[in-house]
TrEMBL record:
One family name in Pfam for this protein: tRNA-synt_2d
Gene Ontology MF terms in the entry: ATP binding; magnesium ion binding; phenylalanine-tRNA ligase activity; tRNA binding
Protein name (database record): Phenylalanine--tRNA ligase alpha subunit
Key word Ligase present: yes
Coiled-coil intervals: none
Assembly notes: Tetramer of two alpha and two beta subunits.
Length: 357
């Protein structure tokens, strides 16, 4: 039977072509030339019609057997080539994670001192049980001023050099927040005491000279509970300063002052020994007990709850700790400055591992 010999030859030719295919592309070519529409097996199939009926059945079965055998060989060779391709890829793409970091974004990029100091302070306050609260930079006049006991026409509104937006159709004026205090207002309106939060972020004042930039950074803290007092306030401030300046002792004095949102109020000074300048005092921020009007404005009963708040400039804290002389350089995007004063991305501040090392 000439056809049977043809088929055996065809099968063995195709099987050796399959075995010789070196990659998946070559194998696909073999598949198309064997089993494709105009492939060699299909061509043999087409001859079926011209055979006498009695031969058609046996020949048809024999062609199908070749087709099945060739398909199986294609499948098994495909599996072998695929796993070889995967092995090759794994070998070529493997990374030696013990190698030092190559020069590039991770080793050359720098964390801005403001971001680094924010991370340091977040670490210090997290250790004392404070949560981080955030709010929008664009605030309502009500949250930025009125609820903080700064009514219309209060002189503090002028002192804050506010950036105002145009009034809307109801006459309401939005502002760029002049302090992060509206974050504490939002927290008191949405959470029940006890409250222990810090609110770090950008603030804006229409003021620009050697020591003021129109945008700067603040961190404020708020604690509200039933028996919170100024002793707690002073302890938290002292612990914060010792951890932040990485010293065992810090001299601190609270100097009487006035803010509309606290009563009593004080300015916070620390002994400049903390930054290696003995004999001087440094002002680092303001603080006080939250004014009863502010508590009432946020739906809290001042007979039951009281608390303290304080605020500091983050940029100033960074300048003091890291001896950075010029505030305006903070926002000038000068790469040489950033290379000098910035921090490595891999130096994440932790209390256990050191904040600034
Ligand atoms: C609420 C109630 C009270 C936050 C406070 C200060 C005093 C303060 C300045 C220090 C340096 C801002 O960056 S700075 O110029 N801040 O003197 N901040 S008490 O008091 C609050 C805040 C929110 C609800």
């Amino acid at each position: 039977m000439a056809e049977t010999i043809d088929l055996e030859e065809l099968q063995s030719e195709l099987l050796s072509e399959i075995a010789a295919a070196k990659d998946l592309g070559a194998l696909e070519q073999v598949r198309v030339s064997a089993l494709g529409k105009s492939g060699r097996v299909s061509a043999v199939m087409k001859r079926l019609g011209s055979l006498p009926a009695e031969e058609r059945k046996t020949f048809g079965a024999a062609v199908n057997a070749v087709k099945t055998r060739v398909s199986e060989a294609l499948d098994s060779h495909k599996t072998i080539l695929e796993s070889a391709a995967l092995e090759a890829r794994l070998a070529s793409e493997q990374a030696d994670i013990t190698l030092p970091v190559r020069p590039g974004p991770v080793s050359e990029g720098r964390i801005h001192p403001v971001s680094h100091v924010m991370d340091e302070l977040a670490e210090i306050f997290a250790d004392m049980g404070f949560a981080i609260a955030e709010g929008p930079d664009i605030e309502s006049d009500d949250y930025n001023f009125t609820k903080l006991n700064i009514p219309q026409e209060h002189p503090a509104r002028q002192e804050h050099d506010t950036f105002y937006f145009h009034p809307d159709s109801n006459g309401e004026r939005l502002v760029l927040r002049t302090h992060t205090s509206p974050v504490q207002i939002r927290t008191m309106l949405s959470q029940k005491p006890p409250i222990r939060i810090i609110a770090p972020g950008r603030v804006y004042r229409c003021d620009s000279d050697q020591t003021h930039t129109p945008m700067f950074h603040q961190i404020e803290a708020l604690v509200i509970d039933e028996s919170t007092h100024m002793g707690h306030l002073k302890w938290v401030l002292e612990e914060m300063c010792k951890a932040f300046f990485e010293v065992d002792e810090v001299k601190m004095r609270l100097r009487a002052s006035h803010f509309p949102f606290t009563e009593p109020s004080a300015e916070i000074d620390i002994g400049a020994e903390a930054i290696g300048k003995p004999g001087q005092w440094l002002e680092i921020g303001g603080c006080g007990m939250v004014h009863p009007n502010v508590l009432v404005n946020c739906g809290l009963d001042p007979q039951r709850y009281q608390g303290f708040a304080f605020g500091m400039g983050i940029d100033r804290m960074a300048m003091l700790k890291y001896g950075i002389p010029d505030l305006r350089a903070f926002f000038s995007a000068d790469l040489r400055w950033l290379r000098h004063y910035g921090f490595s991305m891999l130096d994440v501040p932790t209390l256990a591992g050191g904040l600034s090392s």
